[in-house]
Amino acid sequence: MSQSYDNLIELCEDPGLSGVRDVLCDDKSKVTRLLECNSFTELNNNADKNFRTKPRAGKGTDKELSDYITTERNSLKKEITEIIDLYCCYPYEDIIDEVACVRTSITAVVDFTTEFADRYREAKEERQIAEFSDVAHRALEILVSKEGKTEKYTHVADELSELYDEIYIDEYQDSNYVQEKILNAVSRCRFGCNNIFMVGDVKQSIYRFRMARPEIFIDKYNTYTEEQSPERKIELHKNFRSTVNVINSVNDIFRRIMKKALVILNIMMTQHLITVEISRMRLTRHGYMYVCQRK
Asked: DSSP 3-state assignment of 15?
């Protein structure tokens, strides 16, 4: 939520939005105070549903942008209010009493779920079958050991990291944290040699329901450099598949809808496709070679 406010504040570069920026900063401070609470009592004491009225944007300010900020702020205000209503609607003592009342039922549900998980795992082991997630997590157990809250790479991970000179990952925008840990474990990054090459497009991330975390991609996009370095970012804008009419249409649509404000994708403002037209094909001993011309 704090990041959402940062994104909106970043949009208020126009002097006509300075008052709006101040209000957004005040909203963010409210959220920060809630996030820094260390107890339920402290949370209750800092629960504040009163928001400052957003001032009018200055003359000549982009109306579409101003309306967008208003809509997004209203959405965030609603979310904050709902959280406060949900968690701060009763005194702490009353909530403790209610929790005590349902303790027996909750304990039964936890025990049932734990037993089901154990029996399900035993049934799979007996039949010698595994789901995809089982394979991933067992691979992680082999590569990374846990000592309390500390994680440590195993000797297997060290040996495998020597085996792979280079690691190539496609569709990186749909990686999850388990896959990220596995790939880091078998790479040489921890030894000062970044031998991972990733390709992805966060606009194509469609596997959230499978625990994909596009923020892994976004974090690297924001921290990698365009200059030559161990962590280098290379923009791939050239399109070899579509005609100029299709590309122009796509770019026009995305310029309108992928504004900097939609910023889990805040990185997309400068990205657009360039048409590369295949003018002819020439057969070589290695197969067809495409002769391309930039349009």
From this structure: helix
CA distance 153 to 159: 10
Which three-class secondary structure string do you get for 166-230? CEEECCHHHCCHHHHHHHHHHCCHHHCCCCEEECCCHHHCCCHHHCCCHHHHHHHHHHCECCCCC
Q: What is the residue type of 56?
A: R
| Angle formed by the axes of helices 18-35 and 63-87, nearest 10° | 20
Report which of 211, 154, 213 is spatially closest to residue 185, judged by C-alpha positions: 154
Token digits for 96? Answer: 């403790």
Measured CA to CA, the distance from residue 51 to residue 156 in angstroms comes to 55
Query: Tens of pLDDT along 13-53?
Result: 888 888 888 889 988 888 888 888 888 778 878 787 888 88
For tokens 């039949």, name the residue.
Answer: 127
What span, in angstroms and rounded, lies between the C-alpha atoms of 293 and 291?
Answer: 7
pLDDT tens-digit map of 57-96: 888 888 888 888 888 888 888 888 888 888 777 777 787 8
Q: How confident is the model at residue 259 (pLDDT cuts 50, 70, 90)?
A: low
Say if pTM beats, i.e. exceeds, 0.85.
Answer: no
DSSP, res 232: B
β-pairing verdict for 274-284 and 287-294: antiparallel
Strands 274-284 and 238-239: parallel
> What's the CA gap between 217 and 51, in Å, rounded?
34
pLDDT of residue 260: 45
